[in-house]
Design brief:
The complex is a heterodimer of chains A (258) and B (319). Chain A has 258 residues and is an alpha/beta fold. Chain A has a single domain (3-211), classed as Rossmann fold (3-Layer(aba) Sandwich), CATH 3.40.50. Chain A has 6 helices and 15 strands. With 319 residues, chain B is α/β, with parallel strands linked by helices. Chain B folds into 2 domains: 2-168, 3-Layer(aba) Sandwich (Rossmann fold); 199-315, TPP-binding domain (Rossmann fold), CATH 3.40.50.1220. Chain B has a 7-stranded parallel sheet. Chain B has a 5-stranded parallel sheet with strand order 15-14-16-17-18. The chains are: A alpha/beta (258), B alpha/beta (319). The interface between A and B is large, with 84 and 99 residues. Bound molecules: flavin-adenine dinucleotide. Flavin-adenine dinucleotide (FAD) binds at residues 204-206, 230-233, 244-249, 261-263, 265, 267-268, 271, 282-284, 287, 300-302 of chain B.
Chain lengths: 258, 319
């Protein structure tokens, strides 16, 4: 029987993007979209795992699952170029699913239908920064999960040992029976570059578009703001010993942070 | 109003981030859960700060995080209490457990919030790595789940009336769970965690070698700070992955962030822009970080870091 690996992939603004407001909304004008950086680690791990399992005689398929407007399918194509086999795109052109409760519902429904043996996702998307959706998908699927992992070693298709990064540079090691969902941290791997044959093959791979299921929102955004501008920087002049003394004095007396 | 708090301790001491949640719950009817055999002092402290019922899970099997065991324990307590809000910190624990519980209750959830007041309800959460923030309007629900970024709210207490500690022994079948805790790589150090530190000194590629980072560690230890790094420093092996601040590293929120030889790329700012005071030290007067800093010194970090260490020591010895 074939083994199926799912990867949750989100199309997000490039991290170099400057965010600006247009009226009450985010100005979408100049935003360039890319694969969420943490999802790159998830994609790479899925493809690597497929390679290892295939070598061991399994038939393995890697399926990308993406929710977003029509243009978000570009992330699936980019993932195809590095080895993802096919995609499911939950179409949401009206941006109805914007919070973790609704997005996790829609993704969980597709994952349920696909019946994955293993799911990878990034630990968070760098636009909504919720660090929630993947964990919530696992919970809705009643699948064990482990988040923020920087290492994983499989014992066949039965179980996986992972290292999870927590505060203070500590790593916790867990062993998990599959099926399971794992979310990737930086340090897990680096996504390979697409090869020319990979890019050529990508255009022929299948994307199945599905409508957004009935979802319940958890919240809506009732107003956007940009972070407050800081006052002009105060440059501290002089010779180094005097500069050091002056800075510490200012931090103590003026800024009152030490 | 009823509130349930996911409390945390480090080496037995109640975390400041938890006190920040208590401050936000002032005057409410608050219950909390805290896990681990070593949490007695922290549990007592919660009761002293006015948490009416502190559920202390004393069983040593709960010393290490286990998503299913922790979630089941909290779920049962929440079902019994029926709080309007479940609050946690946006820490390793809260980032995992708050959304997991929200899904279990199919409830609204907003995470890593930087503003929170409960009556009337006002919540703001950063988006796009802090390049914008949004006011959150929840759909009505029996219980709403919220996690708060450490250092965003003032620490406080719930009330002057002390509560009680209830020793709890949840039944959870650890050996039958598909998740088994194996080990942890090291004990918690006494240095503050980056995500909760109130002072951070941080170094970039310009430190050149791993050994050179010692000048930053020395400085940090003099003032009780944590040490961070840019991605360039991490990728070149000068600093550990866990020290990276920024887009693909940690989001930090200290009162003081001192950057040594960090250019100030947009992805680095993503991790530290909410710092209350930012100091940039860079030999290039055109380094972009000077545009985002409160104080700046143009100079050589190798000269300035030891001098600053001396000056801080002088100040702290006086105090
Ligand atoms: C998707 C993505 C994610 C990223 N995520 C992150 C992230 O999480 N965190 C992050 O930091 N970056 C991240 N980056 C990288 C970021 O764009 C920058 O490349 C990085 O922050 C630069 O690090 P740096 O400032 O140490 O190095 P540089 O940009 O090389 O700057 C070195 C600075 O040190 C100064 N200097 C040199 N010698 C001295 C001296 N002796 N004394 C004083 N000053 C000196 C120089 O003038 C210069 O300003 C990311 C990039 C991408 C594309």
């Amino acid at each position: 029987m074939a083994v199926k690996i799912g990867v949750l992939i989100k199309n997000v603004p490039d991290t170099n993007t400057k965010i600006q407001l247009k009226g009450d909304a985010i100005d979408e004008g100049d935003i360039k979209y890319v694969i969420n950086p943490y999802d790159e680690f998830a994609i790479e791990e899925a493809v690597k795992t497929k390679e290892a399992w295939t070598k061991a005689g399994q038939t393995v398929e890697v399926v990308g699952v993406c929710l977003g407007p029509t243009t978000a399918s570009k992330s699936l194509r980019d993932a195809f170029a590095v080895g993802v086999d096919r995609g499911v795109h939950i179409l949401d052109n009206e941006k109805k699913a914007i919070d973790p409760r609704s997005v996790s519902q829609a993704l969980a429904k597709v994952c349920q239908e696909e019946n994955f043996n293993l799911i990878f996702a990034g630990k968070q998307a760098v636009d909504t920064d919720s660090h929630s959706v993947a964990t919530m998908v696992a919970e809705r699927l009643k699948m064990p999960h482990m988040a923020v992992i920087s290492k994983c070693e499989f014992s066949g298709t039965e179980s996986v040992q992972v290292e999870r990064d927590i505060e203070g540079g500590i790593k916790e090691v867990y062993k998990i029976k599959l099926p399971a969902l794992l979310t990737a941290n930086k340090g897990l791997n680096k996504m390979r570059l697409a090869s020319l044959p990979g890019i050529r093959a990508a255009s022929k791979k299948e994307i199945k578009e599905v409508p957004l299921s009935d979802i319940k929102a958890g919240y809506k955004v009732s107003g956007w703001g940009l972070p407050p501008e800081r006052g002009k920087v105060k440059m501290i002049e002089g010779e180094p010993p005097a500069q050091a003394a002056e800075l510490v004095k200012r931090l103590h007396e003026e800024a009152k942070v030490v | 109003m009823k509130i349930f708090i996911l409390a945390e301790h480090k080496n037995g001491n109640l975390k400041k981030a938890t006190l920040e949640l208590l401050g936000a719950s002032k005057g409410a009817d608050v219950a909390a859960v805290i896990f681990g055999a070593g949490a007695k002092a922290a549990a007592d402290e919660l009761a002293k700060q006015g948490v009416q019922t502190v559920h202390w899970v004393k069983d040593a099997k709960f010393n290490e995080y286990h998503p299913e065991a922790y979630a089941k324990t909290a779920e049962d307590l929440i079902k019994a209490q029926k709080p309007a809000f479940v609050l946690g910190s946006a820490s390793s624990l809260g980032k995992d457990l708050i959304p997991k519980l929200a899904a279990r209750f199919d409830a609204p959830v907003a995470t890593d919030c930087i503003e929170l007041s409960l009556e009337p309800l006002k919540v703001r959460k950063p988006f796009f790595s802090g390049k914008a923030a949004a006011a959150i309007q929840f759909e009505s629900a029996e219980t709403i789940f919220i996690s708060v970024r450490p250092n965003s709210l003032p620490a406080g207490s719930v009330s002057g009336t002390p509560g009680k500690v209830n020793e709890l022994t949840p039944s959870f079948d650890f050996s039958g769970s598909p998740i088994q805790f194996v080990s942890r790589t090291q004990a918690s150090s006494d240095r503050p965690d980056l995500t909760e530190a109130s002072i951070i000194v941080s170094g970039g590629r310009s430190l050149k070698t791993k050994e050179n980072f010692k000048i930053l560690f020395d400085l940090a230890d003099s003032i009780g700070a944590a040490v961070g790094a840019s991605r360039a420093a991490v990728d070149e092996g000068l600093a550990g992955h866990d020290m990276q601040v920024g887009q693909t590293g940690k989001t930090v929120n200290p009162s003081l962030y001192v950057a040594f030889g960090i250019s100030g790329a947009i992805q680095h700012l993503a991790g530290m822009r909410t710092s209350k005071v930012i100091v940039a030290i860079n030999k290039d007067p055109n380094a972009p970080l000077f545009q985002k800093a409160d104080y700046g010194i143009v100079g050589d970090l190798f000269v300035l870091a030891p001098l600053l260490n001396q000056e801080f020591k002088k100040l702290l010895n006086k105090a």
